[in-house]
Each structure stands twice: as C-alpha cells, then as structure tokens.
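Readers of this paper often ask what the protein records in our data store actually look like. Such a record has a labelled line for the sequence and another for the backbone structure tokens. Nothing more is needed to write down the fold, since each code stands for a local backbone conformation. The record that follows is passed on verbatim for readers who wish to inspect the format.
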Amino acid sequence: MKHIILTGLIAIAVIATQTRTSEACTGITLKAKDGSYIVARTIEWGGSYLNSQYVIVPRGHQQQSLVPGGTDGMRFTARYGYVGLSVELEQFVVEGINEAGLSAGLFYFPGYGKYVDYDSTQKNSTISDFQLVSLILGNCKNVDEVKETVRQVSVVSIDPRSSTVHWRFADAEGHQIVLEIIDGKPVFYENKLGVLTNSPSFDWQMTNLNNYVNLHSGPASSQTLGDVTLSAFGAGSGTLGLPGDVTPPSRFVRAAFYQTSAPQRESARETVMQCFHIMNNFDIPVGIEFAVGQVPVDFPSATQWTTATDVSNRAIYYRTMYNSTIRCIDLKTIDFSKVKYQTAPLDKTQEEPVQDIKIR
C-alpha cells in the first residue's frame, strides 16, 4: 500500500513540475427548462496517463488524509454516499457528486494561491488538497456546509513542488461557489456565471470578461468606413475577437460565451448532451502544449475525460479520450447504506473502438 501511495505522489509531483499549460480544466453550467441543474467539465493533462477511475463510496466509509512525509493526516467518515472520478490514486477524487445533490470538483490553479505551511501538531485537522473533494462530498449537503467545513480544516500540499488548486462546489438548490486559498486563508466567490478554468484568480477572470463586451451571437451588422461598406464574410461574425487559444483566460471567455448563447433545452438529459457538445470545443489535442518534438506521451488527447453532472437528478455522466461513448452512473440506483466501497478504471481497454459498417 505504501508503495502504491508513493508511486501516486511521485506522479502528482511530476505533473506539478512539467509545463504548467498542460494543467488545463474547463467548467460550465447549464439549466434545463424543467429546472434541472447541470455542471460539466474537462480534465486535461498531456504529460502522462492519469490512471483515472470511478470510485463508489458508501456511507460510513472511513479515510485518512495524506500529509507531507506521511499518511497520518486527519481521519474522516462519510455521512453521505458519493460517486467520484479520481486521478493517479483512488484517494484523489477530483470530481464527483453525493446523494444529497452536492457536486464538487478540483481544478488546477498554478502560480496562484498559497496554502498554509504544514504543522504536524495540527495533523488531526489537516487534509491534502487532492482529498478535499472526498471530505466535502462525504460530509456536506450544500455550499453553506462546504464553507463551514473548509473553515475547520487546514488544506496543505503533499509535495512542495506541486501546483496549487482551486475548487468548484454546486448544490441542488442551484448555488455555486469557487474556493481559492490565498495566503493560507480560504476565499469563497459566488459563481453566478457557472464557468471556471485555471489561473489567474476567479475574480480576475470575471473582470477580464469586460474586455469582450463587443461579442454577441449571430451576424455582425454591416458598417461603413468612409465611402466603403464593410460586410461580414459569413455566419457568426458577431464572435469576431473571441479568443481561440488554450490558455485559461481564453478558455474562460470562450466557455462563458458558448454557455450563455446556448439555447435552453427542455429536459435534464437533453441538457447533459448539450453540455458534451459544448465541451467538444475545449478538447486539447496532444502536442499543442509542448514544443515541436517534445511531446512526452503517445495517447489520443490531452483532454483525458469529460463529465456532465446532473445535480438535480443525482447522476454523473462521463466520456474519455479512449471512448467517446457517454456513460452514466445514476446515484438513485445505488443504496449507499449497503453498497461496498469499490473502484474501477474509466476504460477497461485503452483503445478507441471503431464500429465497422457492413455493406451488402
């Protein structure tokens, strides 16, 4: 067990010390006409395979946090059952939803924020940043309880080389917040827009949206320039100036624009499918984040998986770089008082399926 944990810590440290632009995540939020509330996100890392799994956690499951140099951080027990998706180690749940309808997700936040320094005398109330999602999903039912829980713990990094992260939390009432730890203190932002990417800070990203006040859906109107009439070349000319690169600020603007211009669908399932179509625009091809000839891995995409979580109806959907088929785990079909703790790889095989069409 210690060897497995050490391997996972090394992998996380390696992620932290390679190119920062590889740490990319994009999140959006949509609401259906029937009131269903959906949060979706991607997770990117072009440096290595993240060994992602889904994790089923029953009520009463006990965990203990990793801390710098050991495995003896705070112990915590799940009051609520939940389903999560993990990276590297099954303990590192980075996206999930619990039976009370609280969604939680971790997003990289490199170069910004600062956790408290680890104090071994406070280890019983200290949790690693990569295990905060598990603590929250197991013990909170809404964003108010998230705030209270976070204020009672110290969040630390397991390895000093690793990137800081920030978090998105959304509850069944439609409230959504972003948590960033600045100078060792938790800072909460109300996220009315429902978009999140990476660095810089959330408040900077919201201010930056003002630079794109001219953008609108549909065609741009013809303009005159002296005696010359300027006309759009084609559809969508109102989006001229929408940033198309993969940096976090550009993805934030693009996600905000695509999300708010999307027509509202009738049902939760239709809205989930709409989220996946929008998230197609944020797939990052392998290679674009690295210098020519320096791509470190051989797999299909830097976007390793994408999720859409139906917070209202307690279901999490996902697809991966190896299989575009959308799969669903419906929490309403799980008895969290009886189900056993279990994990499984997101993909049984690391090969993209192709269906041959037989013509006679």
Helices lie at 2-17, 132-139, 143-151, 202-208, 248-261, 268-279. Residues 2-198+262-345 form a domain with the Penicillin V Acylase; Chain A fold (CATH 3.60.60.10). The chain has one domain: 2-198+262-345. Residues 16-21 have pLDDT under 50 and may be disordered.
